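How a chain folds remains the central question behind the approach discussed here. The record that follows shows the chain in one-letter code together with its fold in token form:
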Amino acid sequence: MKKGIEPQYYCGIRNIKMKKKQKMKIHKRLAIVNWGMKFYTLAVVAIAALTACTNDGAGEVINDETAEVRMTFAPYEVEPMTRANNASGLTRADGVTRAAVADYATRLDVWLYEGGTEVQAVHQQSTDEGFASLSVRLEKSKTYTVYACAHKAGGVATLSDGVVSWPDDKVTHSFFYSQSFSPATTTTLSCLMERIVGNFRLEITDAVPEAVTRMTIDVGVSPTRWNVAGYGENAVSRVSSFTPAVGSSPALSVFLLAGDDEEKRDITVTAYDGEDAVVQQRVFSDVPIRAGYRSTYRGAFFTSGVVTMTFTTNDWMDYETVEF
């Protein structure tokens, strides 16, 4: 059999009586036809492979097996509103609104996981253009989980083994969000983040004495890391230190990781002089701590007097005010 000629073509001419030169010409032509058919087959395969791709109009080829997913992040906020009531006219009704992340946080850390493996991480600061929004291209055939944390820590938060940690384990005003999705059906995510902290706030109404050089708030043993399953971890003794100005009436506050269930805890506030001797100390017992709530204690701290307590609700996160 002649090289370069397929059997079906060769068999048809091998017994034909013709001159050698004529046979050679026919063999060459058949070889060219055969090569052309092979090239055509390869071209069809290549075109089939490219049918999964489209052009975005700007010259960039995009694989149709992927999708661009856009995400925006905003804190969950409860806003008091009024509405008509058939019996008495107007009543209060709480509505959910979107606040700006930058109003409460200076950083946003986002992690994308697929099959338990991190595939992408994005870290933003409030000074970045497009803060609290991002766009990523993901495979349609897969299911992803997005985790996001907004906070005021001094550096980037990390996510490892399902636990979010902040630099120096410092807990600040923090929000969290998680959701699983498939890019095949979801290409836009509007992520309403929820507070994962409660807040203790002390509003001092009398003046800081000249002898006082620093104050501390001891909240006892409290978690400093957040498990994405919805609870705090790494519980340690936490003491926050402040340097109030002499003669001022400062407001001091600390954030504590908390869940939806209210817990009571004793919080100790102490004022020290330059030699670390105690100038004044007060223990606030059974302080209610709950995610999304602020407990505010207000009154004279350095001077003695009768302690009175009243509770009201308002909005920051809803908070409780205690006069003492």
About this structure: The first helix runs from residue 7 to 10. The chain has a mean pLDDT of 79. The radius of gyration is 35 Å.
